[in-house]
């Protein structure tokens, strides 16, 4: 069972949607929410990956259902949310986590590639949030958490993703203003360098760069999926009832580094990992992604 730091039963009887729930941070968050009593709707494109996470959650005593859906497809998102409301009633929470990109310098990104990344990381999240609002949350309230990225300052070789994620931060702020009247809170979580399956999507040429990431941030280690999930769960929970429009960075202080200012060697480090089913990425020495 997931070792959440939050109270057992915190989400009892609540339906929470997790997009991109088939792997990485989405899978971890789905496990934590299910361990806290939520019924989790796992949404993603790959039905097999969703089914295997559903089985893991069921084996741990939790409840999850799977919904294969392309979040870039407006009609498909409308139909998905209608189906969820018909099957489960009110939607209490949405974790807009599905995302994807490919590393490339800006000069080599085609219009098609740029638009694909913007559709997945910005438009898809907007569509999911809008439908949850219009079909359920405007009537019964709820909480939305948009997963963005550490794109503060720049996002070299990921310029399309950085632009889309920055757009998602602005969407979060406007939705927080417009939807507060319905009792809907909208926040974002911006993960930095997290030891997650997503790391293995980078080309082998970047292996040494990735392995050197911890030296570039004050906490001088990779974050865990559970450390991101904890921030998401907090923002979904009543403990965050007065927080809306915020973006919570979970990045070990990466944007707080000052160029030219030496970073002291850590004398102690303490990671939090409630999720012992997490796979170590191959690039960090794990056997599987
Ligand atoms: N995960 C990554 N891209 C996605 C998409 N377009 N739809 C659903 N899940 C996704």
TrEMBL record:
Which SMART domains does this one have?
PKS_KR
- Compartments reported by the entry: Peroxisome
Q: What is its main location?
A: other
Instruction: Return any one Pfam family short name.
Output: adh_short_C2
Which residues does the UniProt record annotate as the domain Ketoreductase?
14-161
EC number, UniProt record: 1.3.1.38
Transmembrane intervals: none
The pathway that the record names for this protein is: Lipid metabolism
Question: What keywords is this UniProt entry annotated with?
Answer: Fatty acid biosynthesis, Fatty acid metabolism, Lipid biosynthesis, Lipid metabolism, NADP, Oxidoreductase, Peroxisome, Phosphoprotein
Q: Name the Gene Ontology biological process terms.
A: fatty acid biosynthetic process
The family note in this entry says: Belongs to the short-chain dehydrogenases/reductases (SDR) family.
SUBUNIT field: Interacts with PEX5, probably required to target it into peroxisomes.
Function description:
Participates in chain elongation of fatty acids. Catalyzes the reduction of trans-2-enoyl-CoAs of varying chain lengths from 6:1 to 16:1, having maximum activity with 10:1 CoA. Has no 2,4-dienoyl-CoA reductase activity.
Name it.
Peroxisomal trans-2-enoyl-CoA reductase
Q: Which organism is it from?
A: Pseudoduganella ginsengisoli
């Amino acid at each position: 069972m997931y070792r959440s730091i939050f109270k057992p039963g915190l989400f009892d009887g609540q339906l929470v949607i997790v997009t991109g729930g088939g792997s990485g941070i989405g899978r971890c968050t789905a496990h934590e929410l299910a361990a806290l009593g939520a019924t989790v709707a796992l949404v993603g494109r790959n039905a097999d990956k969703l089914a295997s996470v559903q089985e893991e959650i069921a084996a741990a005593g939790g409840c999850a259902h799977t919904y294969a859906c392309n979040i870039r497809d407006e009609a498909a998102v409308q139909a998905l949310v209608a189906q969820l409301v018909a099957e489960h009633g009110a939607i209490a929470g949405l974790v807009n986590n599905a995302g994807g990109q490919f590393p490339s310098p800006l000069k080599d990104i085609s219009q098609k590639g740029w638009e694909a990344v913007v559709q997945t990381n910005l438009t898809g999240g907007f569509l999911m949030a809008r439908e949850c609002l219009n079909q359920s949350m405007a009537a019964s309230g709820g909480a939305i958490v948009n997963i963005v990225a550490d794109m503060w300052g720049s996002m070299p070789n990921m310029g399309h993703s950085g632009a889309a994620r920055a757009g998602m931060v602005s969407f979060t702020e406007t939705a927080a203003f417009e939807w507060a009247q319905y009792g809907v809170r909208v926040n974002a979580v911006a993960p930095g360098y997290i030891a997650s399956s997503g790391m293995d999507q980078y080309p082998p040429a970047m292996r040494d760069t990735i392995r050197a990431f911890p030296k570039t941030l004050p906490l001088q280690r990779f974050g865990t999926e559970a450390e991101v999930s904890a921030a998401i769960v907090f923002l979904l929970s009543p403990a965050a009832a007065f927080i809306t429009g915020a973006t919570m960075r979970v990045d070990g202080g990466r944007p707080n580094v000052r160029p030219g200012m030496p970073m002291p060697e850590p004398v102690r480090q303490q990671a939090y990992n409630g999720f012992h089913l997490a796979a170590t990425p191959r690039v960090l020495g794990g056997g599987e992604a």
